[in-house]
């Protein structure tokens, strides 16, 4: 297991250090994602059930985010820097401060709800990274920074379109997650994860407003970025905050 942690971290580190050399950097990001796939499976799944805590939740979201960025062929340097840096931080957290393993038995409908939730968080997490990249692009353009292939109005508009595609996909998965939880999980709002549901609903509403604003009013730029990041912050408070409270305080 230690060798797998080292291999995954090393591949992410090389991808980070060579981020300006896109083909080589992406090659190592793919390699890191392959290692991370095996690591995620070993930490998350076993014969008796699955282990889902704050650390494994972050690991799964990081892993899926890698796949989304690779599959979507995102050339955005800032996104890839943040992606690898976060993955390295998650690796260190799990390796040096591991949480106790408590397996939960597999249950079809609950597992479906969790899968939809993870897909939603992953797509929306990548959207927040793209939003940060867009904010940096807008700032540099306003400062009349040296124009390059990745710093132009055309590039900005293309990345903005990708941002809203990610938001819509994540919003759909989040809506399905909330719906499946309400249908299949007993006492969905009354258990110890109730505040997570509230924050998720608030985030879903904000993403709905953002999507409607884009379609009806053509929202873009700073307004879209701010709403995206606020909604994602609510989602992270509910998602990660809930697991941190359960794992470290309860």
UniProtKB/TrEMBL annotation:
GO terms for biological process: cytochrome complex assembly. GO terms for molecular function: heme binding. Keywords: Membrane, Transmembrane, Transmembrane helix. The chain crosses the membrane at residues 22-44, 50-69, 81-98, 118-139, 163-185, 197-216, 228-246. Pfam families: Cytochrom_C_asm (PF01578). InterPro entries: Cyt_c_assembly, YpjD/HemX. Residues 57-246 form the Cytochrome c assembly protein domain. The keyword Transmembrane applies. This is Cytochrome c assembly protein domain-containing protein.
